[in-house]
Design goal:
295 residues, TIM Barrel, 8-stranded parallel beta barrel, 14% strand
């Protein structure tokens, strides 16, 4: 296993992120699923310069992106988007695309269970076929019930993966597992060798080590099933706007150049624009918690 991180949680140049994570012992990055933001040649050069490899990317399934959409043209555009993320990862020599099939923040279905299942399976099959052509593995990620109504548990993600192909995998996230699963460790065991990626945040969605999750036991269970992929940092720090705030200086107050879609995605997760110091501390704390357990 090795330590990786997402980079969608803060708007900053990729070079700044790579320099930051290198000093704390991260080996790879799961790059934000917005291919238009990354020139492949420049990004490959930056990764090489900082000695960080691309592990993969996560789909930012926001707005009209939805593989289970009732509208056929919307589903087709969503498939094209996922394919573009897969292509980006392939061109960056990455291995994984974490797929969130339905729109994050959408909590009410538009059709029957049978209709949606047919649509999402067919769309995911098309994405999976493209991933195979590009040499990239596809992993379905379930989110908690407050972010999506469709896939919340490991068993549900596995059901979609099974309907697509025995080679389609799943990605699990400790934060979501803590909300949705009867037993976090049994959910990891259920995924078994289909587990292709594992996202890391504590129960409060701060850095690993700042909540009550049992990280030694989580990592031990991953070792038990023979998992040898990334533990990908994905803290999404909740903002406290009251006098009780534990981190009063966590929110960036100066203007930041960030695409409005990315800002909305961050805010929809209960977070905000984070200061350099707070973000750096969260990266460091995750590394200090996880690295001793996997080395």
């Amino acid at each position: 296993m090795h330590l990786s991180t997402h980079n969608w949680m803060r708007a900053e140049p990729l070079a700044v992120t790579l320099k930051r994570i290198k000093k704390y012992g991260y080996e790879s990055i799961e790059i934000s699923g917005e291919p238009a933001q990354y020139d492949i040649k420049d990004t490959r050069a930056l990764l090489k310069e900082h000695g960080i490899r691309c592990w993969g990317a996560v789909t930012l399934t926001l707005g009209e992106r939805n593989l289970a959409a009732k509208d056929e043209s919307q589903r087709a555009k969503s498939v094209d988007y996922v394919k573009s993320v897969i292509t980006m990862v392939s061109e960056l020599e990455g291995e994984i695309v974490t797929l969130v099939p339905a729109t994050v923040g959408k909590l009410i279905p538009d059709a029957t269970e049978e209709e949606e299942w047919t649509w999402v399976v067919d769309a995911t099959k098309e994405c999976f076929a493209h991933a195979q052509k590009k040499g990239v593995r596809l992993a379905v990620e379930p989110l908690n019930r407050f972010e999506t109504y469709l896939f919340n548990r490991a068993a549900q993600a596995l059901a979609l993966a099974d309907a697509v192909s025995p080679e389609c995998g799943v990605c699990l996230d400790a934060f979501h597992l803590n909300i949705e699963e009867e037993d976090i460790y049994d959910a990891i065991r259920l995924a078994g060798n289909r587990l292709l990626d594992f996202h890391v945040a504590d129960n409060n969605r701060f850095a690993a080590g700042l909540g009550h999750l049992d990280w030694p036991k989580i990592v031990a269970t991953l070792k038990e099933i023979g998992y040898d992929g990334a533990l990908t940092n994905e803290f999404v720090a909740p903002v406290d706007r009251t006098p009780a705030a534990k981190y009063p200086d966590m929110v960036e107050r100066t203007p930041v150049d960030i695409p409005p879609e990315q800002l909305k995605f961050i805010q929809d997760h209960g977070s905000s624009l984070l200061t350099e110091k707070f973000y750096d501390d969260q990266m460091r704390i995750t590394a200090e918690t996880i690295l001793p357990l996997i080395k």
